[in-house]
Amino acid sequence: MKKAWGRKLLQGLYNYFLFFLLVAFLVTCTTMLFVSVLSESLEIELTNENLQTAAKLTFVNVVLLSVLFTVIDAVRRKLTTEKATKHIISAAREVVKGDFDVRIEPISNFSADDNYNAIIDCFNTMTAELASVETLRTDFIANVSHEMKTPLTVIQNYGTLLQSPDLSDEKRIEYARAVSNASRRLADMMTNILKLNRLENQQIYPKTETYDLGEQLCENLLQFENVWETREIGIETDIGENIYVSADKELLSLVWNNLFSNAFKFTENGGTVTLSLLADGPYAVVKVQDTGCGMSAEVGAHIFEKFYQGDTSHATQGNGLGLALVKRVVDIMQGEIAVESAVGLGTTFTVKIRRDEHDLEEIR
Asked: Are both 170 and 251 inside the same structural domain?
C-alpha cells in the first residue's frame, strides 16, 4: 500500500515538474515579448526594480498555473484513463483465476479514448475464444475418459475370467480374443488422439509431392480386399486416369483409409461400396459411397466432431476420431469434404483436393 502511494506521489511530482517547465517556458516567452513591445511602443524605461517585481510575479503565476494544470490532468486521468484500466485489470485478474466468462462493457463516456474500447473488444474476443477452448478441453477429457473406460472394463473383466482354472480351451481363446480386441481398440484410440493433437497444433507439416491420385486410391482400397470378400460386399469403381494432385501422400492415406473403413463398417453383408474419381476444374473429386444404414441430417451435422458416434451399434468398431482426423487433414490440404446421407439408403462422402498446377496448365 505504501509503495503504491509512493509511486503515485512520484508520478504526481513528475507530472508537476513537466507542467512547470512547460508553463515557465510559455509564460516567460510571452511576458518578455509583451513587456518588450509595450516598453517600445510607450517608450517606458524598465528599471531593475520593475524587472525583479515582474519576475517574482511571473514565477508565482508559473507555480500556480502548474499546480492548476497538474490537478486538472490528474482529474482527467482519473475519469478517463484510470477508470478504464481498472476495469480491464480487474477483468484480467478474473481470467487469471480461470473465469473465462468475464466480459467488459464498452466505455460510453464521451471523454474516453476510443482506443480503450478497441482493447476491450479484443479482450472480450479473447475471453470468448478461451471459454470455447476450455469447453472443448473439458469435453475432450470427459470423452477420452469415457472411451477409455469401456475397453479397460472389457480387459479387466475378461482378464479375471481367464484366471479361472477350470476354463475350457474354447472359452480361453474367446476371452483372450476379447482382451486382444479391446487392447487394440485402446491402442488405436491413443494413436488417433496423438495424430489429431499433432495436426491441430500444426506439429505435422505437409510434405507435398505430385502423384497419381487414382493409383493411391486403388492401393488403399485393396487393403480392404479381405473384408469385402469375406462379407460378399460388391465393389464398383469409376476412376479417371492421369489425375495428379500435389499433396502429402501419407496424410491423404489417412483420409482414404478412414472413409473406406467407415463404408465397409456400415455396409451390410451383400451390399455395395462405390469409389469414383473425376477431374472437376481445379479439383480432383473423390466420392466414396455405400449402401449401408445411412444417417439422419442431425447425425450428419456432427460426424466430424471428436468422439461423436451416431450409430452406437457399431461403437465397438471405432472410437469416433476417424472422421475428425479426416476433416482436419482435408482442411490442411486446403480441400473440401461433404457428406450426403439418408436413413436406410446409404452415405456418400465427397472430397475435393486441388489438382497439380502443372497438370492444370497442360489442360489450359
From this structure: no
Q: How many structural domains compose the chain?
A: 3
> Is there a single domain that holds both residue 193 and residue 224?
no
Residue 131, domain member (yes or no)? no
50/168 same-domain check: no
pTM: 0.51
Measured distance CA(172)–CA(174) in Å, rounded = 5
- CATH number, domain at 181? 1.10.287.130
The domain in which residue 159 lies consists of 140-200
| Same structural domain, 223 and 159 | no
- pLDDT digit string, tens, across residues 144-182: 665 677 678 888 888 888 888 888 888 888 888 888 877
Question: Could you read off the pLDDT of 2-45 as tens digits, one per residue?
Answer: 565 667 667 667 776 777 777 777 777 766 666 666 566 666 66
Does residue 342 share a domain with residue 238? yes
